[in-house]
């Protein structure tokens, strides 16, 4: 066993950390404050902040761009795009890089490594036709457009994909989209040009062949962003989460990714690395919250002592330290398994069930140590809380992932269960 | 022992519940939606909604007004104000009424029973001079003005009152206020005309005699609402929480309540019933969240079953049911002790430590059962969460209240501790 | 609402507390030590300790005997048995008395108020024929014999009564018992003369009419105590828990209580008050553990401070204080409901799900504060832990009781669930 | 990063697992049953079971002997002792081997890898004189004698070493031991011949130089095993935990290990690997409990379903799966850090705080799924519970280890705390 990062991972992690500390951190509070100010002043809070654009340009210059792009694709993309092509990192190597990015709300965007663009780019990379790549992947890798993923629906329990009501009917050489989606992250950004829409294309097919993914330009007739949603009071600019209606949207059949009925297969491949990224960013977010907690509780005095020395505070901090470290190791192990075995569905469900809950708890503890300030926008904790909380639901609620873990662990005992039930019935 | 409510309490509880169900509930979502709409449209989200004014008038007509006013004061106030005078309820009797109000965000305001006005009115009632009552208590009872309580400070750990930095210096026949306060609830309301400000008047006095409470008109020169704060992303209109600076505010010395140095004594009396009210409203809020959880989880289907029948959901609902019931009994017991013994500081700290935490957990569970919708503004859960979360800090953080409980329970063992330490030292 | 105990309850609670403090407490450690000594020496640890017999006699003289006997039965029993007849306490009034008894492991036996004798006596009182009463109830009330309850079975999940495999077949004027039971409390006592056995008498009847309860003399041919069981390492003398086999035990059909098929009806009536008693005794046990924790943590020093002032210890003690108080109120409320409404099945399931778990947690906390000693037999904590732990399983595991609570609370939403599932199916 | 075990670790892990499955597991229940039988029959439960002696001989033949012996010592010891010398495993490599051993209560002893002999052997190996090694280390490596560690004291809070009251006074060429120790594991075994005693040798020295460790033959005049202790009702044969009094025990000064005043230094080195072993064995114990839980809950039916499909059972199993996996990774990381950096005090405290708590919880969950049987001796769960519970206290209680973690994590913020307190004072 060897817990050291590879030299490449260590180097990029340090570079990303340095960039965040020196370039992003000094600007980030101002950027958030400006969004808040615009919102209060009735100005457009979604307008692109030129500071972010500038930061993106600098990150790209320094080769810190598209680092999420998985190993195996750096070749052609390096040739074609130069630095767009990522660094060819394995999931293990990218994990600590993603953790660093998670310490800032805007860093993922600055490095062109934010959800859902990363997942969408991966889908196009693996399943897109050359035309689809030319039209959408290139500008996404370039950071000149942004994208959304249109899956969750307001009217049904979307944790069960078989509940999906939206349709993507093929009619001749067209595909017609109808339905309503929400929690479509990214649609708040003015550069959001394309969505990957998931809908039922053949209700009578086997449930793994029932759905299709379709590239839908956000300006296609019939597509309408109904509203931007708050998550625990937070709009989460500059990307945001929207509710989108699609009403008889007609598109060329070529917009279907990999052909009709392939959505389940694509989703499976998309979600593994994406969930590792989410979890590693949450590790970074938790570290940020823990750092603030240590700082605040060391620097404020009550009842004659630094707050850190009151009651159970030191124990709580130590427990948070241990919880984060355990969670990080679990994610790194899942990433390593993804790299070495090609898939790790159970391990990925395990981290998805464990990490957001841990992050929610650590952030809540830090918030409590900040007193009233912790709930306000003076600290990034209410925002961090909203992020962690939403990830207990996004990409499948905790309970669904626990169910995946349980199914796998109980499989070897299945015969026992079957014969017990049988015996029972025959009584 | 008798767990039945008194006939008067039962009658008023039913009346309040009926009023909320038939008058408030049909309007409440629209009122909140309108605030959100105005905010997005750059209009003033703090402007008084005429529907609330109308509801207040109706509540008053039906005698559901100032019900919080403690027993013993209904006599003079009934004479002077008619229905303003409350119903002369004990804490025990008011408890279930407050619980009902807690199911709605605006009901407390509609019934003129909202914090911090209730506490401020109690202070004036018990400690105010006739002039102070005439000027401020009458319109507060009348609902024509609103008030704030200016205690917590941004620069220090305010859970320790000895940290307070704001000053209220007496200079001749004037008192001069300086300092910065935040989490001043109510200052967002356009009718907020007066604050009760707490500051150091004599830094060299015994720590129970060091502070004074001063009535400060919000339009006094030197008073400035710097900004409204969000709590977990929520502005909590129509009252809101503000940050207020006071810069050389000069007021007649008569504005000091009960004379200089009386703040600690007044605070002690103010906080007992106020915390019981907070806790009972949180019980109501938790019931609301649990009701939504049962409804949602019964009415949505995933994996072929109502969500309520999936995994541990039924157990979680039952545990929430038990947790709420235990908490309610604990609050009612504290209220009963306040009534029968005149004070119940330890019991009140116990409920303040236990109930917000319980409410936070129940609401979080309900939110999880709602999926993405739970985090949005389509349900009152994100708002409820912010309310419960903020009450783990407001009026003293959990940890401080646990400390009060511990001190009381350990008092009988103090000699053991002293002699053990002594023995240790002499080794 | 009125949280004061009735004068009768207050008086008896004080009398029981006084008796325990002055008569039982000085002897109890020696009694337990002697059992342990006998066990190690190869002597009979189950032999009756004459000190207990003596204590029983004194308790009876002081009128502290059979206090569990429910109100309504004191008349005839007072006439017939004098002080045997109990005090005619309601469940509410008996609750604080039971709490006091719970602070000692042997007090319930000393006062003739121990499980399962109390439940068995109630069954005979309510459902027994005059012959059954004459033969078994009289000596039980007199304390000259003891009894057991033979329900749980080793081979099946006994939380589901329909799993029961033991049979009680009526053959002419005999009933024939076959089966194996365990966790039969009381069979370790040399005076245990009778068991109430539950078995299937008519497998084809409705599931509420399928089982019968039969009085089985422990010396009947075919009855065999196979072994005494440890619960978390503890034999729990002087009553103990046994595994009992019944092999073709033939008894007169008159030994069936209330006739064949009545077991479910009897069990329902037996379990309400019994569970209230269990829970109140656990409250007392938790108080005992908390008292020891305060004492130990106040009287020992580490790192220069009394242990109570280290880390989160004060918070843990305060949380235990609050948890016990909440639990007590919940039990008292259930007792009051039993008294006023005649039944309180859901409330009783709620306390059965909540109280043992609370007790386990409080005792574990106290044990941790005692360091190594806490696990040893120098303190009653390992024994207390075993008691609390076993009550998370005895009389139905936590999960079954949570299920009862959930079913009740979800009943009003059942239509929503039904129509949602219907809608789902018709899609 | 690489999470694969080394080939050597994989090979030995498989060999140990195979040996346990095929040689130990078939005998283990019978061995425990026989101890219980002897105890009940008044025979000596501590007598050596010849089956264990036989298993030890076979383990040694197969080279599965002294595997705990740290890398770097295999050279001389291999030469001198042949297979006694261990396999030269790093902590990382030994970790999965120790996990396997943890699945059985007797396997550690069978492989000569049980506490406290392992720690004692390491102390002699690193700090012992040649004479000490010849007399005590050789037979310990050979498994012909056993040993104890005499540190914890009944009269003081031993988590703070400065509380230690036992003395080891040097008088001329003798050292005189006085004091009382308990929780001395191993003294129940008839072959226990030597203890490592820790006592104050110079009360006026710096606190790191105050104590000495002395080799004390268990048959030295003045040494007396006062009694064997139960831990949660369990005697934990065949090693057991004893209380030992030492009354004027005179030994040659050469019995002091590494000379007077070296106890703290020795303890530091002894505890790191020992705690890793403890934690890895607990991982194995937790896996055993989880396996039993899956098996039992799959194979029993209640309410028409396998128990595993009732309520929250699957979620609880999945959470246990995740908790164990996280804990294992944390321990492996600490082991790796011990290997690569030579020390890992903070990481070792972190695992010591986290793993026993996790194990306690997992075992308790499994026990609950077993119903009444789980508490009895029919399953190894009550014993496993006692083991996990005792490790929340042995080698330092959870809270002390959390304190170590907190101190380390707060060190970088210490200046902030100091200046805040300073500022406070100067106000």
Keywords:
homotetramer; 427 residues; alpha+beta; Butyryl-Coa Dehydrogenase, subunit A, domain 1; Butyryl-CoA Dehydrogenase, subunit A, domain 2; Butyryl-CoA Dehydrogenase, subunit A, domain 3; 3 domains; 4-stranded antiparallel sheet; 3-stranded mixed sheet; 15 helices; 9 strands; 52% helix; 14% strand
Description:
The structure is a homotetramer of 427-residue chains. Chain A has 15 helices and 9 strands. Chain A is an alpha+beta fold. Chain A has 3 domains: 7-144, Butyryl-Coa Dehydrogenase, subunit A, domain 1; 148-260, Butyryl-CoA Dehydrogenase, subunit A, domain 2 (Beta Barrel); 264-414, Butyryl-CoA Dehydrogenase, subunit A, domain 3, CATH 1.20.140. In chain A, strands 2-3-7-6 form a 4-stranded antiparallel sheet, with no helix packed on it. In chain A, strands 1-4-5 form a 3-stranded mixed sheet, covered by helices on one side. In chain A, strands 8-9 form a two-stranded antiparallel sheet. In chain A, a hairpin with a 2-residue loop joins β2 and β3. In chain A, α1 (7-24) packs parallel to α5 and α7 packs antiparallel against α8. The first copy, chain A, is globular, with a radius of gyration of 22 Å. The N and C termini of chain A lie far apart (52 Å). Chains A and D meet through α9, β9, α10, α11 and α14 of A and α9, β9, α10, α11 and α14 of D. Chains A, B, C, D: Residues 12-143 form the Acyl-CoA dehydrogenase/oxidase N-terminal domain. Chains A, B, C, D: Keywords: FAD, Flavoprotein, Oxidoreductase.
């Amino acid at each position: 066993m060897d817990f050291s990062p590879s030299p490449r991972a260590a180097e990029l992690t340090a570079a990303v950390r340095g960039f965040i500390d020196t370039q992003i951190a000094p600007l980030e509070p101002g950027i958030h404050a400006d969004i808040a100010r615009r919102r209060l002043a009735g100005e457009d809070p979604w307008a692109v902040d030129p500071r972010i654009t500038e930061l993106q340009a600098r990150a790209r210059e320094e080769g810190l761009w598209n680092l999420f792009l998985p190993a195996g694709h750096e070749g052609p993309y390096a040739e074609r795009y130069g630095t767009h092509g990522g660094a060819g990192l394995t999931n293990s190597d990218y994990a600590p890089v993603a953790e660093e990015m998670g310490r800032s709300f805007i860093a993922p965007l600055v490095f062109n490594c934010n959800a859902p663009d990363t997942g969408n780019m991966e889908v196009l990379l693996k399943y897109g036709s050359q035309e689809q790549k030319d039209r959408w992947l290139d500008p996404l890798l370039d950071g000149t457009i942004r994208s959304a993923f249109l899956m969750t629906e307001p009217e049904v329990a979307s944790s069960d994909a078989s509940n999906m009501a939206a349709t993507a009917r093929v009619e001749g050489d067209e595909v017609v989209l109808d339905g309503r989606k929400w929690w479509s992250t990214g649609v708040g950004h003015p550069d959001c040009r394309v969505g990957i829409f998931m809908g039922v294309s053949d209700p009578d097919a086997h449930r793994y062949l029932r759905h299709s993914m379709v590239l839908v330009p956000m300006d296609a007739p019939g597509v309408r962003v109904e509203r931007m949603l708050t998550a625990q009071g937070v709009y989460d600019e500059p990307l945001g989460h929207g509710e989108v209606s699609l009403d008889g949207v007609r598109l060329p059949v070529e917009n279907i990714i990999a052909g009709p009925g392939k959505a389940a297969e694509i989703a499976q491949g998309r979600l593994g690395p994406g969930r590792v990224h989410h979890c590693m960013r949450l590790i970074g977010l938790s570290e940020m919250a823990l750092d603030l907690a240590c700082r605040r509780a060391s620097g404020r005095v009550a009842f004659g002592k630094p707050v850190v020395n009151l009651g159970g505070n030191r124990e709580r901090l130590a427990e948070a330290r241990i919880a984060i470290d355990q969670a990080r190791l679990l994610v790194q192990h899942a990433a390593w398994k993804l790299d070495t075995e090609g898939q790790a569905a159970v391990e990925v469900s395990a981290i998805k069930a464990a990490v957001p809950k841990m992050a929610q708890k650590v952030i809540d503890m830090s918030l409590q140590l900040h007193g009233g300030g912790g709930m306000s926008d003076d600290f990034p904790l209410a925002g961090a809380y909203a992020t962690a909380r939403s990830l207990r639901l996004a990409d499948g609620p905790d309970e669904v992932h626990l169910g995946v873990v349980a199914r796998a662990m109980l499989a070897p005992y299945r015969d026992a269960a079957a014969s017990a039930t049988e015996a029972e019935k025959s009584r």
